Amino acid sequence: MKKTFISIFIISLLSITLLSCNFQFSGSSMLTKPDVEASRNHITISIPLQSADTSYINLYRKVPNDETIVSLGIIYPSALNSTANAYIYTDYLITKDTTYLYQARYKESDGYYITEWSNEITAVDGYSINDSITYNKGSAFFVYDEDEYSLKIIGTISAPTSIADFEDNYKPMLIVNTSTESQLFELASIADSTTIPLKNYLPLNFLDTPITIVGITAGKQEYVDPEASEPVTKYIYWIEPTEMTIRGYSDKTFVIPSTDTAAGFDYSHNINNIN
Question: Which of 140, 149, 152, 193 is most solvent-facing, going by the fewest CB within 10 Å?
């Protein structure tokens, strides 16, 4: 039975987004950096256990001398039942002979805590530079409908062909930023001429404020028991994002109102509208 991907994930994808987050630190320094080890076709990241109450841990990656930060995925510690002093995350989407650094961010009850960047580690094996492990947008782009508050995909976006389980396990996701956060929204399709009704996806904190459509990615979940009636997620994995352009919007930014101001007074009975 196919599982439905969680529709919203809070993530930090780019360095500007990462720096805008309200991180907290232990004293005046970041937390202990992850340990990293390169194996035949993957890199293992060992993230120190900080608290028994950690909600989740975000994993990030970058290459030296490049400030672009890629969001790799999430660890859910409560699903791991680990008695060890570290959590393990395995990065399989690596390119051979490429050097990486890794970082973790902990979500605790009192805020976010972030580690130092790991030591540099070079992939001894992995995908070749010519392998297809991200979406290829070709000449595809988005068109924004100001009346319907929707995006339409024009052109063909090709899925990665080098990831063996991509078709079976990965779901396409739309990346949307505000000035303070970034979220992913699962898409039913990214085929040519697909319409994405943004109001059906965006939560209230993404309305009445400038949002930026960054692009698309894809993700998969790893479960404790995939056959359970309500499977528990222990890991989430994302491929690297693919930026998309929006015709007529060079900055890819606009505002979607929570209520059409021309329609009259808001008389909706929705407790979520109460602040």
Answer: 193
Sheet of 86-91: strand order equals 35-38, 43-48, 86-91
Beta bridge partners of 102: 61
Coil, helix or strand for 220?
strand
How does residue 153 score in pLDDT terms, banded at 50, 70 and 90? very high
Strand residue runs (E) in 99-158: 99-108, 111-114, 121-122, 141-145, 150-154
C-alpha triplet 187, 61, 139: angle, nearest 5°: 45
Label residue 254 left, alpha or beta by phi (over 0 means left) and psi (-120 to 50 means alpha). Answer: beta
Under a CB-based contact definition with an 8 Å cutoff, are residues 255 and 206 in contact?
no
- Longest C-alpha distance within the chain, in Å? 63
Separation between Cα atoms, residue 13 and residue 240, nearest integer Å: 9
Question: Which of 194, 240, 195 is CA-nearest to residue 216?
Answer: 240
Tokens linked to 24: 């907290």
Chain segment 37-65, per-residue pLDDT in tens: 999 899 999 999 988 889 999 999 999 99
Tokens 């970082």 — which residue?
103
For 20, the token pair is: 């805008």
**Strands 111-114 and 23-24, how do they pair?**
parallel
Alpha-helical segments (H) within the chain: 15-20, 166-169
Q: How far is CA 252 from the centre of its chain?
A: 18
Taking the C-alpha atoms of 11, 163, 135 and 209 in order, what is their torsion angle to the nearest 10 degrees? -20
